[in-house]
Structure formats: structure tokens, C-alpha cells
């Protein structure tokens, strides 16, 4: 009975140590910290804290791997990606999402990892193309559909505007860049009954609170505005 209890105790203790062993090791292995950009160093430290509390977080593992790849530490980057792949989250280290991993493209371990992820997460295509936005620098964030007029509204982070696409697939500006103090546009929601489009946008000036704006779906005029 004592042996059984001892065995259980060893298993319970060994599991977190195995999961966290790389945290301490990699903290020590960052021998060239003076060459790491301050922002990257802070992000790496924050991600390691996240992983201590939630060891299998695939997003944290992925982002930390990107940071290691960015500073040229391919070994730790691949080890983190291998750990991330065990979560079967479908995160793809290939570009464009994994731009920092471009330098590792020819590494056999990296190629094997990509093949494994693709095999376990084959794409499922069950959709049809509705429209194509020709503004390649639009950086769309939010999308909302109006079931009354059968139109799509797309928000733009980079251009601080809202685009509307009709049944003909043609995109036009519903609200132009920065119009009425519109900041980077984020999430949106159509109120089909009252004919409003709720838009969440950040501040147009640093340090000011974000804003939730309500615009008339038909005219684009501002109907309500409040700070959050």
C-alpha cells in the first residue's frame, strides 16, 4: 500500500515537472538577452508565465515559438511547435501566420511537423464564394449581414472605414476613412428591426476611450454614440 501511494505521488509530481522543464531551461538558455528587443523579451516572459499556469495552451506555445524563431533560436522554436502540435489545435506554422518560421522551412524536423499538422487537420470546404474584396490593404476585421437588404458590411482596421457589398458583389464605402471621427473599425452587428448598424471602433486619438457607434443602415448617418 505504501508503494502504491508513493507511485501515485511520483506521477503527480513528475507530470508538471516534465511539462515545465523547458521553462527553466529556456530561461537559462537565453544567453544573449541583451540582443533581444525589449518588446520581444517582455512578451516571452509573459508567455512563459501563461504556460506555467496553463502548460498546454497551444496559442501561447505557438507565439512563444515565433519569438524564439525571431531571435534565431530554431531549436527551442521547433520544440515548442512540437509541444503545440500535441494539442491538435490546427495552428499552422507556415506563412503567412508563421512568418518568423520562414528561416526554418528546410529543417527536416520542421517539415515533418508541418506534414503531421496537415495530415491531422485536413481542410474542410463546405462554402461557396460570395464576393471578393479588391482592396488588398483593407485589413478587414468585422463582418455583419443585413437580412433585409441582403448586404454585407465589412470593417477595416487599416483604413478606418466600413465597406458595404450588395447582391451584385460590388463593394462601396458605407463610411469613408475617418468619417465622423471613426477610428479603427472592429466588430459590427446589424439591428435589422430598427435598421441600425452597431460598430465598435477604437479611438482616433491615443489615450482616449473606445467608442461604440450606431449608424443608420440605409443612410450611414450616426444615430448614437457612447464611450466605453
List the helices and strands and how they pair.
Blueprint: H1 2-29, H2 38-53, H3 58-70, H4 74-85, H5 108-120, E1 140-146, E2 151-156, E3 161-165, E4 171-175, E5 185-191, E6 196-201, E7 211-216, E8 222-227
Antiparallel strand pairs: 1-2, 2-3, 3-4, 5-6, 6-7, 7-8
Helix pairs in contact: 2-3, 3-4, 4-5
Can you offer a commentary on this structure?
The protein is an alpha+beta fold. The protein has two domains: 2-120, no CATH class; 140-227, Thrombin, subunit H (Beta Barrel). It is built from five helices and eight strands; from the N terminus they run αααααββββββββ. The strands form two sheets. It has a four-stranded antiparallel β-sheet, with no helix packed on it. Strands 5-6-7-8 form a four-stranded antiparallel β-sheet, with no helix packed on it. The longest helix is centred in the first third of the chain and has 28 residues, at 2-29. The chain is elongated, with a radius of gyration of 24 Å. The N and C termini lie far apart (60 Å). The relative contact order is 0.07. Residues 1-22, 28-32 and 223-228 have low confidence and may be disordered.
Short description:
By secondary structure, the protein is of the alpha+beta class.
Unreliable stretches covering 5 or more consecutive residues: 1-22, 28-32, 223-228
What fraction, in percent, of the residue positions are helical? 25-40%
> Overall pLDDT, averaged?
76
C-alpha-based Rg, rounded: 24 Å
Overall SS class: alpha+beta
Oligomer: single chain
Element order, helices and strands?
HHHHHEEEEEEEE
Number of discrete helical segments: 5
Sheet bearing the most strands, described? 4 strands, antiparallel
Count the beta strands.
Answer: 8
Tell me the fraction of residues in β-strands, as a range: 15-25%
Q: Strands of the biggest beta sheet: in what spatial order? A: 1-2-3-4
Overall geometry: elongated
Number of domains: 2
Distance between the termini: 60 Å
Amino acid at each position: 500500500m505504501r508503494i502504491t501511494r508513493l507511485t501515485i505521488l511520483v506521477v503527480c509530481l513528475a507530470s508538471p515537472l516534465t511539462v515545465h522543464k523547458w521553462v527553466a531551461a529556456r530561461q537559462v538558455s537565453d544567453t544573449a538577452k541583451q540582443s533581444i528587443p525589449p518588446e520581444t523579451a517582455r512578451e516571452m516572459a509573459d508567455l512563459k508565465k501563461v504556460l506555467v499556469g496553463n502548460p498546454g495552451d497551444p496559442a501561447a506555445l505557438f507565439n512563444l515559438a515565433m519569438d524564439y524563431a525571431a531571435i534565431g533560436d530554431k531549436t527551442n522554436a521547433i520544440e515548442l511547435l512540437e509541444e503545440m502540435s500535441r494539442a491538435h489545435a490546427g495552428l499552422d506554422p507556415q506563412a503567412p501566420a508563421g512568418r518568423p518560421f520562414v528561416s526554418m522551412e528546410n529543417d527536416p524536423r520542421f517539415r515533418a511537423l508541418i506534414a503531421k499538422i496537415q495530415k491531422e487537420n485536413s481542410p474542410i470546404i463546405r462554402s461557396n464564394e460570395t464576393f471578393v474584396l479588391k482592396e488588398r490593404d483593407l485589413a478587414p476585421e468585422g463582418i455583419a449581414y443585413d437580412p433585409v437588404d441582403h448586404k454585407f458590411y465589412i470593417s477595416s482596421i487599416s483604413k478606418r472605414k466600413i465597406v458595404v457589398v450588395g447582391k451584385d458583389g460590388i463593394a462601396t464605402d458605407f463610411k469613408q476613412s475617418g468619417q465622423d471621427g471613426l477610428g479603427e473599425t472592429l466588430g459590427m452587428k446589424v439591428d435589422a428591426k430598427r435598421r441600425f448598424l452597431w460598430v465598435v471602433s477604437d479611438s482616433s486619438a491615443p489615450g482616449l476611450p473606445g467608442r461604440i457607434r450606431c449608424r443608420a443602415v440605409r443612410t450611414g448617418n450616426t444615430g448614437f454614440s457612447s464611450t466605453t
